[in-house]
Amino acid sequence: MILVVCCCNFLGIHNVSGMGFIEFTEMDGITYVYHIDKETLKKTPSWDGNIKNLPLSMEQAVNIGKKWAANKIKDKQDVLTLKEISLTNICRTGIKNRWVYEISFESKNKNSDYSTTYMAVFFLDGTIIEPKKIKTNTKK
User: Which of 52, 124, 127, 130 is deepest in the core (most CB within 10 A)?
Assistant: First the structure.
């Protein structure tokens, strides 16, 4: 398993009027935005980048993310597979050393070739940032 540690410029994290957000678009054109406001961010644990001081272990993070994704699955017979884990520094907000986990899971049904990706985003205290759907594909 690979742990990716990123800064905000890499993964589509933006800052608008003191609010950061992460944008995630699926292949079918559905876009999700994870809003991160400064007041909430201030209350989260800081992390200096030293893996020994990480407030929420990777194992704990995967468990939180998997539980969140499992609740989103429509067909409970789907199988969840871990796709990617990253720790992302929420910079450009004026608050230093604040990070989020971004953990992607693939949900696939044994009877189908199609899969769905679920991306859990949460602070280092385990607080989930619920995504907001902002755009859907209009193809017919």
Answer: 124
